[in-house]
Fold:
Amino acid sequence: MRSMPVIDTHIHLFDPTRPGGVPWPEKGDVIYKPSLPPRYAALSAPLGIVGAIAIECSSLASDNDWLLNVVGRNPIMVGMVGDLIPGSPSYRKDLDRLHANPLFLGIRYGNLWNRDLYVDIDKPGFVDGLKALAEAGLVMDSANPDPRLIAAVLRVTERVPDLRIVVDHLPNATLPAEKSKQREYWANLHRLAQSPRVYVKLSEIPVRTNGKLITDPAYYRAKLDAIWDVFGEDHVLFGSDWPNSDHVATYAQTFAIVRAYIAGKSDGAREKYFWKNSIAAYRWKPRRADQRAL
Structure:
């Protein structure tokens, strides 16, 4: 497999040493330490990663600006996805302010911060807020998938068809035991895949069994192929979930598992997965020469 540049569409940036600390991760967690672009670059650059997108990991309104400032100071970062609540009193003002910076790519909403997209979509102003997001050319990332969230995302596509949506961590979705519910889940995924504006991240892939990381690519192939076959090579993205991924595997181990899986695809499919699809999904702009070379 020939080498190619890579854009990591899912990393988290935070600094627990800041005054007031951070909402996540909690103190005592193995990843409770500064996770900032220089440390990320030291881990990822040797593997061919040339850019990354920061995904919010804080419900504090002020952390949108903090994250945007951190991303702005580090050209390896091609953008960030923030945290806003559509329909809230300050939503439109905050959206307009943040959108003035081209590094602001959209918002994240889903099973996070005690929110429920399936319920919230019916709240006053919520859909109008998502329509404003779409009109601005921005994206909505989901969070922590399960069948209810997938059904909710499907409702969003029906009510805001122009909105680009990225479904995070689909390989790690929590599935019900009942066969009928599983069939309903996969039926909803197939319906989602009919939208040209829906993308999915093959992220949160590594698995440990009895405390040992599974590195055999054959272990992962069936599950990943099932998602790939539904959404197709034009709608899948690479995301590492660093440093949350450190709970399961090192960055190098995570990337090795991904690279072993993707080695079975064509050069064109690998290029789409590793960087081309990220441009279509997020509309990020290059900030360094090696990103412009894409």
